[in-house]
Automatic annotation (TrEMBL):
Residue ranges of domain D-isomer specific 2-hydroxyacid dehydrogenase catalytic in the record: 37-304
Protein name as catalogued: D-2-hydroxyacid dehydrogenase
NAD in keyword set: yes
PANTHER family from the UniProt entry: 2-HACID_DH_C DOMAIN-CONTAINING PROTEIN, D-ISOMER SPECIFIC 2-HYDROXYACID DEHYDROGENASE NAD-BINDING DOMAIN-CONTAINING PROTEIN
CDD domains named among the record's database cross-references: 2-Hacid_dh_1
Keywords: NAD, Oxidoreductase
Organism: Sporosarcina quadrami
InterPro entries (UniProt xref): D-isomer_2_OHA_DH_cat_dom (IPR006139), D-isomer_DH_NAD-bd (IPR006140), NAD(P)-bd_dom_sf (IPR036291)
Coiled coil segments of this chain: none
Length: 314
């Protein structure tokens, strides 16, 4: 069996693979276009280099392991036509992203940016507006692996958590869970609105002006899922007209965020350049998913961890 990685791993990780799977050949490239793909049964990739032409050149390909949570940039319809299985590393981001979300919430609530500004001005001012989390309500759009971990951390601070997903099925660490069609009923109750939603046909542009008008004018809106959930113009209007109190954005409609974007100029926004999931342990965690699934694969078990529904896109 031949496996192609389109990114590099550490020497000790490669040695571990070779020891654990002695009958498997592992190859590596940074440019999939330069490699003959005829004999590879498995490709391990971040996803963006998988194109229809790559798939046409890989007649033996049966499984694509995506070392990322998002698969929306891949030609899923072509992959489905060819009967190729796709799995990802859903949940790999839950620790760093949940910690990032909590860090921003605590920083704003305890006025750390303001205190830092006062320090730079050498200003001793005890009249700083601060608040606390206990007794507040957080609405989490997409209470999956990441959203549930955020909920777990918020529960520890005494926050009431409401999960919102397409089905309304109960989610872990949510005090209650609602379907998307009940979102507008719940928005006025939320002190914090956090989106971890993937990019799907259902979620693209889902939050229009009408949703922000229903939020508390003190609400903290956080988008850590995908930037196409809400148009930039909608966010600018909500922030400039006081429909919400503050926004923390890690993802944007267009990335990198253009220098001419009005978002840069607003005082009630925190801009994070899509780094909330970054961690020195990322590849290590991705390899854990891969090795467990490779063991299943070699035993002809096709019920892999984190299989992607190619029709739904997640």
């Amino acid at each position: 069996m031949r496996v192609l990685f389109t990114f590099n791993i550490k020497e000790d990780q490669l040695r571990s693979l070779e020891m654990g799977f002695p009958n498997t050949e592992f190859s590596f490239t940074k440019n999939i276009e330069d490699v003959p793909l005829d004999s590879y049964e498995i490709i391990v990739t971040y996803g963006e280099d998988i194109t229809p032409s790559v798939l046409d050149r890989a007649p033996s390909l049966k499984w694509i392991m995506v070392a990322s949570a998002g698969v929306e940039k891949m030609p899923l319809d072509v992959i489905a036509e060819k009967g190729i299985i796709v799995s990802n590393v859903r949940g790999i981001h839950k620790t760093p992203m949940a910690e990032s979300v909590l860090a921003h919430i605590l920083s704003l609530g305890r006025a750390l940016p303001t205190l830092r500004e006062q320090q730079e001005r050498k200003e001793w001012n005890m009249k700083v507006k601060q608040t606390e989390l206990r007794g507040s309500t957080a609405l989490i759009l997409g209470p999956g692996a990441i959203g549930s971990e955020i909920g777990r951390l918020l529960n520890a601070f005494g926050v009431y958590t409401i999960g919102c997903n397409s089905s309304g099925d109960r989610a872990q660490f949510m005090d209650e869970t609602i379907p998307f069609d009940q979102l507008k009923e719940v928005l006025p109750k939320a002190d914090i609105v956090i989106s971890i939603l993937p990019s799907t046909q259902e979620t693209k542009g889902m939050l229009d002006d009408s949703y922000f008008k229903l939020m508390k004018n003190t609400a903290l809106f956080m988008n850590f899922g995908r930037g196409d959930l809400v148009k930039e113009s909608t966010l600018v209007h909500a922030l400039k007209h006081g429909e919400i109190g503050h926004a923390v954005l890690d993802v944007f409609e267009k990335e990198p965020l253009p220098a001419e974007s009005e978002l840069w100029e607003l005082g009630n926004i925190t801009i994070s350049p899509h780094v909330s999931s970054h961690s020195g342990k990322y590849v290590e965690r991705a390899m854990e998913f891969f090795t467990e699934n490779l063991s299943k694969w070699q035993q002809n078990d096709r019920e892999l961890l984190n299989l992607i529904n190619l029709k739904k896109g997640y």
